[in-house]
Amino acid sequence: MATFRKRNGKWNVQIRKKSAQGSISGTFDTKSEARLWAATIEAGLEHGQSPFIGHHPTSKPNGVLLKELFAKYREEVLPKHKGWKSELATLKVVDRRLGNIRPRRPQRNGLGAL
Predict the structure, then answer these.
(1) CA atoms in the 13 A half-sphere facing the CB of 59
(2) What is the rounded average pLDDT of the residues 89-112?
(3) Which of 15, 35, 89, 107 is least buried, going by the fewest C-beta atoms within 10 A?
(4) Which of 55, 61, 31 is nearest to 41 (CA)?
(5) Residue 42 near residue 17 (C-beta atoms within 8 A)
(6) Which residues pair with 6 in a beta bridge?
(7) What is the pLDDT of residue 104?
(8) Where is pLDDT greater, at 70 or 110?
(9) In what order do the strands lie in the sheet with 23-28?
(10) Who wins on pLDDT, 63 or 75?
(11) CA nearest 59: which of 76, 37, 74?
């Protein structure tokens, strides 16, 4: 079941399911975007899909490169940080070294832990 809340001009969605461990949340500019995302995630959970990277409705089928995730972080999150200049320098170094890697979903071991 999805819960929608408006905070600071943005829509926050929280999805709780018995089949999922804990809750899944996302923040969106409009309520229609939030509803679409929630419906997609809930449908995926009903079919046993995981909401991890590579399963988001807007992601590419084979996942994304780390450099794409870094770029999104640089545009959306970094400007809000107090020490963004030093963090940007660190992010550039990490991007140069690891940017062409595609992250994989974590694999569970036989005991059910990550």
Answers:
(1) 20
(2) 72
(3) 107
(4) 55
(5) yes
(6) 11
(7) 67
(8) 70
(9) 2-7, 10-16, 23-28
(10) 75
(11) 37
pTM: 0.44
pLDDT for the residue numbered 114: 47
User: Residue type at 95?
Assistant: D
pLDDT (tens digit, 9 = 90+) per residue, 44-54?
A: 777 666 655 44
Amino acid at 72: K
More confident position, 50 or 64: 64
Cβ burial of 112 (10 Å; 0-12, 13-18, 19+) is exposed
Residue 97 token pair: 């070294």
Q: Which two tokens stand for residue 44?
A: 């995926």
d(CA 102, CA 54): 10
Question: What are the structure tokens assigned to 86, written together?
Answer: 């030093």
- Residue 36, φ and ψ in degrees, nearest 5: -65, -45
